[in-house]
Model the fold of this input.
Amino acid sequence: MAEEAAGLDAASTGSAADCTEMEERTGHEDCYDLCVVRPLFQQEENMKADPEASLPAGQEASAILCRDACRSYGKLKVLSNLNLTVPQGHIYGLLGPSGCGKTTLLKCIVGTLKISRGHISVLGKPPAYPGHGVPGRMVGYMPQELALYNEFTISDTLTFFGRIHGLTAKETRARMDFLVDFLDLPQKHSLVRNLSGGQKRRVSLGAALLQNPELLILDEPTVGVDPVLRAKYVTHTPSDVCFWLFANVPLSHAEAFDGIYNGEYWGVIGFGENFTSYLTKRMLQRQVSREVVDGGSVHVWLDLTNRQIALMLQKNLHEAFQTFVETKLGSLSYLVALPIKFEEPIYGSLNTDFTTFVTPGAVLSITFYLAVGLTALSFVLERKEGLLDRCWVAGVSSLETMLAHLFSQLFVISVQIVLLLLFILLVFKLPNEGSLVLVVVLIVLQGITGISFGLVISAAIDDEQNANQATLGIFYPNLILSGIIWPVECVPYPLRYISMALPQTYASEALRCIMYRGWGLSRMMVWRGFAVTLGWNTFFLVLATVILKLRS
Done:
């Protein structure tokens, strides 16, 4: 330990000179983190050594060797005369600000980018050398992006990469079982698109570790991963060398709050200086002071202007703390856990978001008001141009006129409904646990209700401006009070009675019951939505017919 401390002190003394040297090579001034991280990972003392110089006696062969490496994008120099030596059997951390060329360097090392000038050797040979396994089975690469197929399950993903690397089915299964346990992955048959962000990062890491590569390159591997798994990453590195790339630089207290005030961040998490000791006292001692309670607490400051993001952050923080407690205390974790346990939901998912709640009502609202917009001006324009009077003189009845508009507009609405369903079910992947026929019929009935209401407006109003104002004037109250944006139970009581009488309130509730609960017409909440919609259809059609008859 004394020797290591002396080595770190010596490295710290030379950090300013190293930083100047790195600035000259890369053209980036902000390289302090890149310089000081090298002695921590026991790398070479001087990266700008003679390219032909041999390694010190007793040092292992180099896994990565860069000499005078240059890479440019047009006139922009990203790497300039970079010299780097990474011995085998080491973990090497590369730290630097965004845009300084870290990812470009990694791509040059794995052979997906060619350097403009200089030399790079990986595991003894240049990248993409014929017959060399880089890129290939010898290197495991986890990019900054997730780079996963959302349509695959975890098993499909690992099997896919196993076949790429030439593993047998038996070898793939063995590695898969190990990685699922090591990375604490969900069930192997879980779809990638249904995983959380942290779980997807772990699956991506598993794909990089699958073939047990000699060289492991990780680009920001701990983003979205809890601290316990981060420690496992460091302590378990089966490859001969692990090359880590980080871009998240810690901020000071003032910088973090400035970021929130400037709208750059949604929250700040603060840990006191003696957080660990205070937290331990809180857990083990029966009675502690207020100072210990406060010092052993995680302090969170949030920007609550976006309620959905704030709720998501609060939920994730609670889950992360619960995981931490369960890992550290094991069977004693109940001592600091809330005495509340949320079991698997009877309907829906634990990860249900606001979009899932809003969508059924939004679909009905879009269908309803598209229909209103198509028909609100129908009779207004025909009356203005004299066509309505001419038809009446020719013997066409009011009912026939109204039904002709109804069926012609229904065809247009049907096309819009088909496109709407294709997007919400196939593109946005919203769940539908019930009958698709009931979903379609209810949406079509809402479209007919919109057409009927548009005919009432068109029959009662003579000019276009007043017809448009009537349509827009009814849109917003209906959107707010129909349980589309927030539940009807949250509407104040005087307005709740009005809400119950609107044409979309019960219909939205019925559509949610069909799509998310899988209910049918035997349930009161479902058939009530159909009954109310049919009632409004009949009322609007009769009213439009009466108004037309009176005006003719």
